[in-house]
Amino acid sequence: MASFWQTLTNRLKPGSSSPQPVRAGYVVDMHSHLLPDVDDGIRTIDEAMTCLRQFAEWGIEHVVTTPHVSQDMFPSSSDLLRTVADDVRTQLLAEQLPITFDLAAEYMVDELFVKRLHQNDLLSFGTERYVLIETGWASLPMQLNTWIFQMQVQGYKPVLAHPERYAYFRGKTEALADLRQQGCLLQLNLMSLTGRYGSDARRMAQQLIQDRLVDFVSSDLHHPRDLPTLEKAIQTTDYQSLCQLPLQKPTFR
């Protein structure tokens, strides 16, 4: 019997037949790790194309990939990331997939982030200049509010990645509401709705939806093997509730 991976790869090859696809219900995925071999995401262009073909089947029209950028683990330069993104775009054009592919980044708020903020060297997306940020898992950075303000002063719109996954926000949705009041938007990972990151993250995601504290929804896809979990997520009742929220709609030139 063919493995799931073999079945999925064969089904997504150009020209292959496939059943009527599930529709995602959102057209911009603004958080993923689809640049080959730059972080803990996909390793090859073939893997990237497997993911992008599936996105196209789901009706996603615009993908903003957001590789990790951090001082200790992934200190990639903006120029390097742009070069790798161009390689993916070349393959997209060759296959004529109906997807626009843009580059931003998921910045750890560390010393490298502060340096690039001061240099006005943050990879953003949309004409609104949204910038995706994440924090460490152990504790909330004491200077986060200061950095959010500095980002806004320089014309960026901060977006906090997957707040449902940070243990120090669990049961403290008022703290996230305060961040939004300060202008930091919130992005929820779709796979949190399936328990992919644990039951606590799932409950927190449900609470954020109930409290209407979600501005963006995205895959945070790292590997083709997570595509079945992502498909499961977009068929949940929680996702149906999520789609009723007034989510942000970035604009692109």
TrEMBL record:
<dbReference type="Pfam" id="PF19567">
    <property type="entry name" value="CpsB_CapC"/>
</dbReference>
<protein>
    <recommendedName>
        <fullName>protein-tyrosine-phosphatase</fullName>
        <ecNumber>3.1.3.48</ecNumber>
    </recommendedName>
</protein>
<dbReference type="InterPro" id="IPR016667">
    <property type="entry name" value="Caps_polysacc_synth_CpsB/CapC"/>
</dbReference>
<dbReference type="InterPro" id="IPR016195">
    <property type="entry name" value="Pol/histidinol_Pase-like"/>
</dbReference>
<feature type="region of interest" description="Disordered">
    <location>
        <begin position="1"/>
        <end position="20"/>
    </location>
</feature>
<comment type="similarity">
    <text>Belongs to the metallo-dependent hydrolases superfamily. CpsB/CapC family.</text>
</comment>
<keyword id="KW-0378">Hydrolase</keyword>
